[in-house]
Write a structure and sequence with these properties.
The complex is a heterodimer. Chain A is mostly beta strands. Helices cover 0% and strands 60% of the residues of chain A. The termini of chain A are far apart. Chain B is mainly β. Chain B is 0% helix and 53% strand. Chain B is built from no helices and eleven strands. In chain B, a hairpin with a 3-residue loop joins strand 4 and strand 5. Chain B is globular, with a radius of gyration of 14 Å. Chain B starts with a strand and ends with a strand. In chain B, 37% of the residues are buried. The mean pLDDT of chain B is 92. The chains are: A mainly beta, B mainly beta.
């Protein structure tokens, strides 16, 4: 069965800190890994990673994928209170299925 | 683009009643997904459609759940009869899968269902 595991489950930091969120996966026929941010409503898309070793960056957020070790990290530098959210990792596989398998998320709280 | 639109935003019903959740995907997207989110289990895929055809419904918990997609711009998820354990946030999501480009999944704002 395809599995996505995120760690830590929750994290509390102070504004200005740098955080690293982890996502490991065990899936057959990996195609892509995606990161989402979920505040109070719908998850919103952050990054899609398909190739190993290529960093994707958007402002203070960045992410990288290691297909050999089967994991990805999401880094947030100089955290702000607006970064408080649940960060979800999901994997999509090759082949006939188009479904995304989600991890349970990391709840990040950034205190002022 | 208005994004994925779900209705209602909140639904409170009594055990045994029928519940119908609605979704309008983003225009041009050829895949539509229904997810359920709870604290205990996270986001679970219930069913997904490709070009209005159900492809994988292995996540539908039991026969009380059914989903339809009569056309490219509308889908429903029905629970009949509803039970308290169905209480969750139900998300609809859509994406486009072309031959050389894959868009990420775009979520609606969800329907928070409470069954008393």
């Amino acid at each position: 069965e395809d599995k996505v595991v995120q760690s830590p489950l929750s994290l509390v930091v102070h504004e200005g800190d740098t955080v690293t969120l982890n996502c490991s996966y065990e899936v057959t026929n990996f195609r892509s890994l995606l990161w989402y941010k979920q505040e109070k409503k719908a998850p919103t898309f952050l990054f899609m990673l398909t190739s190993s070793g290529i960093e994707k960056k958007s402002g203070r957020l960045s992410s990288i994928l290691d297909k050999k070790e089967l994991f990805s990290i999401l880094n947030i530098t100089a955290t702000q209170t607006g970064d408080s959210a649940v960060y979800l990792c999901a994997v999509i596989t090759q082949g006939g299925s188009e479904k995304l398998v989600f991890g349970k998320g990391t709840k990040l709280t950034v205190n002022p | 683009d208005a994004g994925v639109i779900q209705s209602p935003r909140h639904e409170v019903t009594e055990m045994g009643q029928e519940v119908t959740l609605r979704c309008k995907p983003i225009s041009g997207h050829d895949y539509l997904f229904w997810y359920r989110q709870t604290m205990m289990r996270g986001l679970e895929l219930l069913i997904y459609f490709n070009n209005n055809v159900p492809i994988d419904d292995s996540g539908m918990p039991e026969d009380r759940f059914s989903a339809k997609m009569p056309n490219a711009s509308f889908s429903t998820l029905k629970i009949q009869p509803s039970e308290p354990r169905d209480s969750a946030v139900y998300f609809c999501a859509s994406r486009f899968r072309g031959s050389s480009y894959n868009s990420p999944l775009h979520f609606g704002n969800g329907t928070r269902l409470t069954v008393t």
